[in-house]
Specification:
This protein has helices at about 5-15, 60-75, 85, 90-105, 115-125, 150-155, 170-180, 200-210, 235, 265-275, 280, 290-305, 305-320, 345-355, 385-400, and strands at about 25-30, 40, 45-50, 105-110, 140-145, 160-165, 185-190, 215-220, 245-250, 260-265, 335-340, 360, 360-365, 375-380. It is of the alpha/beta class. Bound molecules: pyridoxal-5'-phosphate.
């Protein structure tokens, strides 16, 4: 039979405890206050959700929903074309301008997803060597823990790709010194998705400056959550003497609580991407109504510091309550990774937690390295003290 291997590969996944399944969330359980709570209903049972990326609790926010409806009324739900045909609406332009002001970047471009933005960027910059056009193909240097979309983009480009050990800037420095390319790109996540720790931003910026390389930051997990107005890692680097990130990508699908993504950069790269980024050129522009709603979400993120403060407060509480013998990766983001190791054990604990009304997905290879399966806890603004106490008690019981 054609593609028989698909069956074999699925069986192998099962035997390795790496088989993945979807669960249908019937609805989010909305509380009486304006901010919805962090509960989900699956198969008729209610759980406190500790696996969501809605870090600031903005999903289903009344003002964002209202802006979405307003956007539908003004522009329609669909852009009806790619951006280079007639899909680029006033809502997209307004959102781009909002992001540029927020992040202090000259230009910004919207994509249908963070995955698409990452692949587009690496593919567009990693060109075939051509002396006449002044490109040697380029060298990309990626942190080992970079997201799958960065890796896919880099490896499917024409550039040479090197990966440095996680946050090992000494190794990165050596690799950069050995490179003879004139087109070097250092790429890292701002906050790492599965570990929750931060990149060594100023060291990366210094190395980029020293080696005349560009610095690319995927800020998917820092946007909204870090920085005085939630600008993410890029906010930490603004006015830094080491320099800034040349290109910043962030998705709208996490703290911003809508959908889609942006790439912020200088005017020249912006123009280049409009002309050469295939995921931009050959894809329907994001919904203009979503763009309109995203502007409202960013306004709330800028104004409501209390949302970031609450994540810090609840994260501190969890750390205080967890037994000290539990292995947890140090983090000052929303993401707290509890290392379990074995896939089966991680799955078992995740199931046990479900019986206690807690939804905490076990993260297993290939998302993380073999032997580093984990419970990735995300603390969100709409959790409360009782949620955290319940989680800590259940984890202490399951793990010690
Ligand atoms: C670090 C990182 N980059 C990119 C993406 C992709 O973003 P999106 O979900 O918008 O495709 C994700 C999330 O899934 C992510 O965690």
């Amino acid at each position: 039979m054609a593609f028989e291997f698909t069956k074999r590969k699925l069986l192998a996944q099962k035997s390795l405890s790496r088989y993945r399944q979807r669960f249908c969330v019937q609805q989010a359980a909305v509380s009486s206050s304006q901010t919805h709570n962090a509960k989900i209903i699956v198969d008729g049972k209610t759980y406190i959700n500790f696996s969501s990326n809605d870090y600031l609790g903005l999903n289903n926010h009344a003002q964002i929903n209202k802006a979405m409806q307003e956007g539908i009324d003004k522009f329609g739900l669909c852009s009806s074309s790619s951006s280079l045909v007639t899909g680029y609406h006033y809502a997209h332009q307004a959102l781009e301008e909002k992001i540029c002001q927020w992040l202090n970047k000259p230009k910004c471009l919207l994509f249908s997803s963070g995955f698409a933005a990452n692949v587009a960027l690496f593919n567009a910059l990693g060109q075939s060597p051509d002396q006449e056009k002044g490109t040697d193909g380029g060298h990309f240097f990626l942190d080992k823990l970079s997201h799958a979309s960065m890796l896919d983009g880099a490896f499917s480009s024409k550039a040479k790709v090197k990966r440095f050990a996680h946050n090992n800037t000494a190794q990165l420095s050596q690799l950069l010194s050995k490179s003879d390319s004139i087109n070097k790109l250092i790429a890292s996540e701002g906050v790492f998705s599965m570990d929750g720790d931060k990149a060594k931003l100023s060291e990366l910026a210094y190395l980029a400056k020293e080696h005349d390389a560009w610095l690319y930051l995927d800020d998917a997990h820092s946007i909204g959550v870090i920085g005085e107005q939630g600008q993410g890692s890029v906010g930490l680097l603004n006015d830094h003497k080491a320099g800034q990130a040349n290109i910043v990508m962030a998705t709208f699908g996490k703290a911003i609580a809508t959908s889609g993504a942006f790439l912020a950069c200088n005017e020249n790269l912006h123009d280049y991407l409009i002309n050469f980024a295939r995921h931009y050129i050959y894809s329907t522009a994001i919904s203009p109504a979503l763009a309109w709603a995203t502007i409202k979400s960013i306004e709330l993120i800028q104004q409501e510091q209390w949302r970031r403060d609450k994540v810090v407060e609840l994260s501190d509480l969890l750390m205080q309550l967890l037994d000290k013998s539990i292995e947890i990766i140090p983090s000052d983001s929303s993401i707290h990774a509890i290392l379990i190791g074995d896939e089966q054990k991680a799955l078992k604990i995740s199931e046990q937690l479900k019986n206690n009304g807690i939804w905490l997905t076990a993260i297993r290879p290939p998302t993380v390295l073999v032997g580093s399966s984990r419970l990735r806890v995300t603390i969100c603004t709409n959790h409360n003290h009782n949620d955290i106490r319940h989680l800590a008690n259940c984890l202490n019981e399951a793990l010690i």
